[in-house]
Structure formats: C-alpha cells, structure tokens
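User: Hi! I'm working on a homework problem where we have to compare a predicted structure to a textbook description. Could you give me the structure for the chain below?
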Amino acid sequence: MLKDMIDRFAVGVEGHFPNALLAQPTLRPLYADRYGGSGGAFHGGSGRCVHDSIFIMKGSGPTALVPNDVSRAYRHGYLQMSQAIKQTIMSRVAQALFPYSAVPVLALIDTGYDFDFDENGRDERAAIVVRENFLRVAHLERSLFFGDAGYPGPDQSEDALRVKATIEFVAQKYQLHTSQKALQFLIDWLDIVCRQFGFARASRLWGDYLVSSNLCLDGRWCDLELFQTLPHWGRGRNQVNNVFGAEAASILNTFKSLKFYFSKYAVIERNAKMPISNTNEIEAKIEEFFLDDCTRLLFEERPNEMVKQRAQKLILSIYSAEQTFSYDAAKIDGIEIGFGEPLKKLIDGLVEELKAVIS
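Assistant: Happy to help. Predicted structure tokens:
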C-alpha cells in the first residue's frame, strides 16, 4: 500500500526535481487547477499544486499558472517540510474542532530534495502533502490579470468560460434553479464562513491570510500552514498587514465577488438587492457566533439567559479591551510584550468579574 501511495503521489513538475528522487521518473499527465480571486488575481490558479481529479498534491514544483514577474517565493513551487508538518497537524486540529471542519492532509511525503527557500544559504527539506481534491471559492472567480487577451482563444477568454462553467456546475449541483434560491445559497455560505470565523476568534486560532482560495465553497478551511494560535485577542498583525479581528472587510469583498459572478452568468438576477452591504453587518454575524462559542467553551452546562447575557457582555468587554493592543504576530517577541499596566489592570478586573459569573 505504501509503495502504491508513493508511486501515485510522489510527483514533481518535469525538470524541477532530480529524476533519481522521483518514484516514477516518467512523464504522467496531471493538472493544475485554475482559479482567480475576489479582486482579480495575478496568478492563473495553483502555483505549486497538481491533481489527478481525485487527490491534489501540494509542493510539486512550479506550474504554468505562475506569472513570471512574481517574487521567487511564489515562483519556485516547493513546500517547506516545516510548513508541511504544520499544515498536516493544523488540518487535523481544524477538522476536529471547527464547526464546518477543514480539508485534512492525508499524507506527507519527504521528497529527499533540499532547497534554499529563503536564499540565506541554508537549505531545508522540500515536502509534498496530499489532500482530497476540493472546490475553492476562488474557482468561481476570474483571474483578471493573468495571461493574455485581445484575440480568439487567449488566457482571459478561457478564464471567462471556466468561471461560467463552474457557476453552472454549482447551480446544477445545489439545484439553484431560481434567483431567490441562488441568493439564499450565498447568504447561507456567508453564515457558514462567519460561523467559522466566530469559532476561530473564540479559540484564538488565526488563519493569518484570508483569501477566497483558502476557503472551500462548503465552508471548510483548505490551506492551514499559516494558521497559528494567538496569546490573546489583541490586534495581531502579520507580514502582509492582515489583522486579527479585522476579517469582515475581506469576507464582504468575497461575498460581493460571488454575487457579481452569480449575477453575470444569469444565476441571480442582476438587479437583485445585496442582502449584506457593509462590514458592520458581517462583524455583527461574527460577533454573535464568537459569543456563543465563548459561552459554550466556558460553561459545562447551559446557563440561564440572565447569566448568559451577563457573561457575554463581560466577554465582549474583554475582547474590546484587548483589541486596543496591537502587536506583530509574526514575531515571537511581539507575543512576549504583553499588555501595558493600565490595560492589564482593566482586563484582569473584567476577568475576575467573569469568573464570578461562571462560578
């Protein structure tokens, strides 16, 4: 069985792994999945993933969907072993804990190949992770800035046909035969995503980089090597300036993008009113699920309504107070700084009140 798995999944883009390391140093047809993004996309889809329709392998080397003018970090197509191990672990944690689960890593393969990922003279082992194939939200969006256009059969023309076909497939699969059903489908998807983010906030599990290519259409997370646990509810900021607690704008952007493409390809009427139109409405949804999950995690038994409301008011006060503190979540020293004394005193007081309510 192990040999069959290696023969099937130990694959690499031609010319990017030494032949001696490949289980089958022969040509084999595999596919890179095309997808876009909520604001367009400069890539054409997966830059380091290939699939055989059933399983998808990440870390296979660069695909033809990577533009030439991106940085080396996005162009080399390999996956660091450290990231592969983290994704394997976090995918199983998220699969077990999150209300709408995650796409699990089914196998982790050591390629036997070392690569200088950071161009610092220190090689690190490259790995391949194997997952089931899945439908990203980004599969329903255009890749507006990739490839060429302006003549019959260019990349952009094919990309438009790809999105049209994907929207039609989704409409048929979920029986979205009317504009009302299609719009309700998107509203239900939004609730699922906000539910996922509410739990992530309650448990301080942060996805670090929210894009539609990291979310499945059924609500599951699908790329988890950047997930991390945070020490508190402060406004952790990563290297690309995403901020913990400020996810609503990205979610709304993706929701609007999906509504646009569903309307463009005649699944939703073009004049249909947007049911959600601002980030405050998204944040209210996340907050509701966040407070419910905090209550569920704090109380062994379901509290009465008065106790629940008091506890949730205190939880929200603690969250709001901690959100006034900003730090660099990408650096461990940012986690060690902690709160200043006035803020710490305020939070400690609220925590003591919450403990009294719980007991």
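For your comparison, note the following. The mean pLDDT is 87. The two ends are 53 Å apart (CA to CA). Good luck with the assignment!
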